[in-house]
């Protein structure tokens, strides 16, 4: 079984709709991250959380919000989706001094 | 913001050839991580480096943490078709809860059988 899971894997939605992407992990890690990937732009950090009570903005947080419901769950919301939010979205987890990040399989989001 | 310069941006090689890619920065890093992303999947950690000068291997892959702590390279020996994908370097700046993971833009590798 995968250690980091993301749902849905693919989503097509319309401009203005509210969308939630979910991430769950069984690694027992405290730290969780949401990234966005666009062709040629690499991975850009949207939000991150070091524990259940900690939420921090990344470099591209505008238009997004997150919720850390439990140590194992970290959700990303687009309150009103727009076409330039079409991208691949990845959740990742890490822990401890080594802080190596482990990624989920990604969600491909298309906003029409 | 801080940047990692990863090169080359893309490579197209013949099966059996060796591959070399690198990341450089003007900043000093505490760790270097090398990831591979297969099409349609999330990045997977290949090698992690924690000390300046450290040389680490993982099968046909070898990576080194530059002695200045500002660069790292990844070599792949005797490439095979399943090496195809995007390779990312990433490095940690600072320490503790101020630690930030900075990503390169990736090297796209294509292998001709």
Explain this structure to me?
The complex is a heterodimer of chains A (112) and B (113). By secondary structure, chain A is mainly beta. Chain A has strands at 4-7, 10-13, 19-25, 31-38, 42-51, 54-57, 65-70, 73-78, 87-94, 102-103, 107-111. In chain A, strand 9 (87-94) and strand 10 (102-103) form a beta hairpin. The radius of gyration of chain A is 13 Å and the shape is globular. By secondary structure, chain B is mostly beta strands. Chain B contains no helices and eleven strands. In chain B, strand 6 (55-58) and strand 7 (61-65) form a beta hairpin.
Write the layout of secondary structure elements.
The complex is a heterodimer of chains A (112) and B (113).
Chain A: E1 4-7, E2 10-13, E3 19-25, E4 31-38, E5 42-51, E6 54-57, E7 65-70, E8 73-78, E9 87-94, E10 102-103, E11 107-111
Parallel strand pairs in A: 2-11
Antiparallel strand pairs in A: 1-3, 3-8, 4-5, 4-9, 5-6, 7-8, 9-10, 9-11
Chain B: E1 5-7, E2 10-14, E3 19-24, E4 31-37, E5 44-49, E6 55-58, E7 61-65, E8 71-76, E9 85-93, E10 100-103, E11 107-112
């Amino acid at each position: 079984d995968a250690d980091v899971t993301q749902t849905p894997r693919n989503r097509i939605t319309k401009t203005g709709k509210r969308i939630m992407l979910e991430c769950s992990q069984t690694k027992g890690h405290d730290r969780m991250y949401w990234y966005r990937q666009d062709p040629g732009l690499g991975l850009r950090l949207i939000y991150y959380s070091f524990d259940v009570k900690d939420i921090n903005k990344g470099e591209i947080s505008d238009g997004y919000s997150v919720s850390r419901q439990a140590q194992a769950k970290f959700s990303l919301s687009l309150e009103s989706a727009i076409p330039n939010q079409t991208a691949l979205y990845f959740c990742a987890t890490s822990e401890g001094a080594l802080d190596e990040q482990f990624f989920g399989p990604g969600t491909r989001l298309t906003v029409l | 913001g801080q940047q990692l310069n990863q090169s080359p941006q893309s490579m197209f090689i013949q099966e059996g050839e060796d591959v070399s890619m690198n990341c450089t920065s003007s900043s000093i890093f505490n760790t270097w991580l090398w990831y591979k992303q297969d099409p349609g999947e999330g990045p997977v950690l290949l090698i992690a480096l924690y000390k300046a000068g450290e040389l680490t291997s993982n099968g046909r892959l070898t990576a080194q943490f530059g002695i200045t702590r500002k660069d790292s390279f990844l070599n792949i020996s005797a490439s095979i078709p399943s090496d195809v994908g995007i390779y990312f370097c990433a490095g940690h700046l600072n320490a503790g809860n101020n630690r930030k993971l900075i990503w390169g833009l990736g090297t796209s590798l294509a292998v001709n059988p």
